[in-house]
Specification:
The chain starts with a strand and ends with a helix. Strands 1-2-3-4-5-6-7-8 form an eight-stranded parallel β-barrel, surrounded by seven helices. The protein is an alpha/beta fold and about 250 residues long. It is about 45% helix and about 15% strand. Helix 11 runs parallel beside helix 12. The chain is globular and about 45 Å long. It contains twelve helices and eight strands. The chain binds 1,3-dihydroxyacetonephosphate. The site of 1,3-dihydroxyacetonephosphate has 14 residues, from strand 8.
């Protein structure tokens, strides 16, 4: 059956020294008190090569927050999936709403990124989610179904390697969280789409994380839902006590 996962997304926070200190502190905390779920930290590119050797990979996986949609070559400033993998990172967040809205990442671009990540043995954490106006117009199901087009061209075998994260944009960094019912409803809908496309077994094995103002105080009730398999955590991943509080929701 599918895994429970708590993944942190550091976004554009922490310089190198601060990031190393945060990773060390988290590693110490989770070595002393082992988690009951998979734990991943996704950091800015420049941290990856320094962070992977200092965390116990049996306890903490490391990932990037993005990768290029091209293999290699004259793409100034870009970082390829192969480069990410060469640091020892095992995961990559793709399709985060901030990448979609601020950097124009489309369904087609994301399809390329997902393929390149998989070709380099990285596990994509593929994000989907609607903005507030779409939720108010009750269009959230349509929106996530359209976003899934980037990963629904994968073979069943490859689809089985990805993690999904449902992040309602109106809940990201706002302090507004989806209610456990809202999260369960849309996670169950997302899983039903996977059943239609790939069948029950693939759907049952797919971890679907919730993201958006997830905190120690609300993680337990969100994760208690049958179709919510953990969280993708922004702000609360920047402090070990908060992040561990969310990880401990699985205890
Ligand atoms: P917050 O937890 O800060 O709302 O961010 C969620 C997120 O965007 C994780 O990818």
């Amino acid at each position: 059956m599918r895994k429970n996962i708590v993944a942190g997304n550091w976004k554009m926070n922490k310089n190198l020294q601060e990031g190393i200190a945060l990773a060390k502190e988290l590693n110490e905390a989770l070595t002393a008190d082992k988690p009951n779920c998979d734990v991943v930290i996704c950091t800015p590119f420049i941290h990856l090569a320094s962070v992977t050797p200092i965390v116990d990979e049996a306890i903490i996986g490391v990932g990037a927050e993005n990768c290029a949609d091209k293999v290699s070559g004259a793409y100034t400033g870009e970082v390829s999936a192969e480069m990410v993998a060469s640091t020892g990172a095992k995961y990559v967040i793709l399709g985060h709403s901030e990448r979609r809205s601020y950097y124009g990442e489309t369904v087609e671009i994301l399809e390329e990124k997902v393929k390149l990540a998989l070709a380099n043995n990285l596990t994509p954490i593929f994000c989907i989610g609607e903005v507030l106006e779409e939720r108010q117009a009750e269009k959230q199901n349509e929106v996530v179904a359209a976003q899934l087009a980037s990963v629904f061209t994968l073979s069943a075998e490859d689809f089985g390697k990805i993690i999904l994260a449902y992040e309602p944009v109106w809940a990201i960094g706002t302090g507004l969280t989806a209610t456990p019912e809202q999260a369960q409803d849309i996670h169950a809908y997302i899983r039903s789409l996977i059943v239609e496309k790939y069948g029950q077994e693939v759907a049952d094995n797919c971890s679907i994380l919730y993201g958006g103002s997830c905190k120690p105080s609300n993680a337990k009730e969100l994760f208690a839902n049958p179709d919510v398999d953990g969280g993708l955590i922004g702000g609360a991943a920047l402090k070990v006590s908060d992040f561990k509080g969310i990880i401990d929701a699985f205890k």
